[in-house]
Prior knowledge:
The radius of gyration is 60 Å and the shape is elongated. The chain has helices spanning 5-68, 75-229, 236-249, 257-261, 267-270, 273-293, 295-303, and strands at residues 313-319, 325-330, 336-341, 346-352, 355-362, 369-374, 380-385, 389-394, 400-405, 411-416, 422-427, 431-436, 441-447, 452-457, 461-466, 470-475, 480-486, 491-496, 502-507, 511-516, 521-526, 541-542, 548-552, 558-562, 568-572, 580-585, 592-596, 600-605. The longest helix is centred in the first third of the chain and has 155 residues, at 75-229. Strand 19 and strand 20 form a beta hairpin. Strands 1-28-27-26 form a four-stranded antiparallel sheet, with no helix packed on it. A four-stranded antiparallel sheet has the order 2-3-4-5, with no helix packed on it. It is α+β, with helices and mostly antiparallel strands.
Amino acid sequence: MTGRRPSGCGISWKRHIGEQLRQRDRQQRQAFEELILQYNKLLERSDLQLVLAEKLHVDKYDSSNRHELSPGSDGMRNEALLQEMAEMRMKHQEELTELHKKRGELAQSVIELNDQMQKKDKEIQANEARIAEYQRQIAELEKECQELHCSLQDLERANQTLKDEYDALQITFNVLEEKLRKTTEDNQELVTRWMAEKAQEANRLNAENEKDSKRRQAKLQKDLAEAAKEPVPVDQDDDIEVLCEETTDHGGEGSSPEHGLNRTPSRKSQTQPGSLLNSLTNIFGRRSVDSVSDAHDKEVSAGLHLDVRVPTVALHIIDAHEGEVNAVRFSPGSRLLATGGMDRKVKLWEVTSGRYEIKGALSGSNAGITSIEFDGSGNHLLAASNDFASRIWTVEDFRLRHTLTGHSGKVLSAKFLLDNSRIVSGSHDRTLKLWDLRSKVCVKTVFAGSSCNDIVCTEQCVMSGHYDKKVRLWDIRTECVVRELELQGRITSLDLNPERTELLACTRDDKLNILDLRSTAIRQTYSAEGFKCGSDWTRVTFSPDGRYIAAGSSDGTLYVWNVVTGKVDKMLSKHHSSSVNAVAWSPSGTFVVSVDRGSKAVVWTDL
Length: 607
């Protein structure tokens, strides 16, 4: 930039000198043009006068010569002289004509040169204008270059600052990474120690339980031995019945009819109290196992005899949460009601004599609650939330027991499997995860291909409803889709009937579909004029006996359909001022609770 300034100054003073010379030329040429013009006129006049004078002189000379010359001997000489003078005159006239011609040519040359000078002047002016424009552009470019240079310096300073910050952050990151590594190692060590302590504690408890069991067994054997020594009167029929039971339970021991007919207590039976104790233990133990394995069948058979009532009036209107309420669920015994909302809390309501009183709130979630589920005993509660996690609390003391993280999107549904030791969660990240609560880790992850809005489970099958309008049935053991059914709208909710043979699906095309799980076909579709599904997570439910369906509409109306007839049995409105998000039917069949976006929960009954 500095190297160009001397050349610009040199061009400036040269241009100034040229301009001064041209101005002087114009001023002096104007004065001399008039002088030259007058001079040319004078030359023309002088030439004309010279010609006229010469002509007059010649005429005068001729006339005088004619008077003077005599016709004598000099006549011949005079004629020669006259002829010579005529030749000179002709020569002078030719020279004069030639001079006039040259003067005209020179005048024409002067005019052409003047024209050329004017053209050159115009070219010079145009060149000067271009030079001025170029100089202006050069000045602008120099200014722009200077600004760019300043900007470059600013960017270099900013870049240096960012580099320094990056170096500082890198150092901080390295320090934090080292701390994380040490913390991870410490955590691993603590977990190892904790597991060792738990193992020792479990061994200690097992040893104490074994000792206690041995003491109780020894005491029972002693009591039985003492009781066997004493003669006890036994009725004949009762004795036969007991012996028959023993024969049935221990048929493999080879008991003979003669033994069964012996009424008198023998010495051999008195000396073997351990075998009788083992028989009693086997009987009670087998009965306990049978009772656990048949718990679900008893619940189903009991559900068939429930007195399910179609609600007709609103019993209570509760301000359940500070904001939108997304989920509602009854405990298995209908003793507790749980609601979850966008205020990041799960609230427990105690049901006593038709009244609903707040029992407590379960906290720990970092975002809104999306679904709620009790385990089979009602002692634990599982909730999914928008902070990409699922959590489990104990109902009795409101303590947070487990936090299951691993999804990369909000968790929209989470359910217990029937053994209550595993759960399945479905997320907006298009995956389903199987969690083992004993190890507190995710044991399986299945990519579903679409956002999962709701889940229901059986013994070895998980059914999921998705944003792509499909219901998928998964085999937990193989992680494969067993069956797949596409409906007409995005699926918002799933529910199983008590027999677990039919699946209820709510879709965004404002319809409810019942699917037969044995044939994987739509058995019946339910709709109603005015019913509209309010959101992608609108929850619907079967009644405990499976004879009714309850669902909430976007206008705040609760609809109850009869499953057999397919018609609407009841429409309940006037208490919800916004869209109903979820509905729950109490296992006793007495109450229905609906929750909405406006923080309200309405308890319905037939009273």
